[in-house]
Amino acid sequence: MNDCITYAAPEPVFAEPWHAQVFAVTVALNEAGRFDWPDWAERFSKTLKRHGLSRELDGGEDYFTAWLETLEALLIELGEASPDRISALRNAWEEAYLTTSHGKPVRLRQE
Question: 110 falls in which pLDDT band (50, 70, 90)?
């Protein structure tokens, strides 16, 4: 009898790179003392409820879109970012994504 054990590669924790990035930025801001985690959790929960995301989430696009929305609102409230700057940055990333060849890294243009 062959007692060979096979292991499957672990599933990625984040479905998309930007999910990991927005998570990491949020954790870094918390660790830097910009906000406390219970406040963050309460705000994020309210965002999920506002969007009607009461079902079981698997960490997909809708979950991290709500995460990003919560982070943007918190940064605006704390005076760390303005709505105009957030909008301009979002538009710049969208333009960079849409104009980048498939398979190439997406980068913002240097201003």
Answer: confident
Number of domains in the chain: 1
**CA nearest to 81, candidates 33, 34, 45:** 34
Has residue 2 been placed in a domain? Answer: no
Residue 11 lies in a domain: no
Dig out the tokens for 19 from the structure.
């999910």
Rg of the chain over all Cα atoms, to the nearest angstrom: 18
Would the CA dihedral through 65, 68, 74, 80 be positive or negative? negative
Give the domain extent around 41: 17-98
**In this predicted model, which residue has the larger pLDDT, 76 or 60?**
76
Highest mean pLDDT among 2-11, 29-38, 42-51, 85-94: 29-38
Please report whether residue 111 resides in a domain.
Answer: no
**Could you tell me the CA-to-CA distances from 78 to 27, 29, 38 in Å, in that order?**
16, 12, 16
| Cβ neighbour number for residue 104 with a 10 Å cutoff | 7
Rounded to whole angstroms, the Cα distance separating 5 from 94 reads 45
45 inside domain? yes
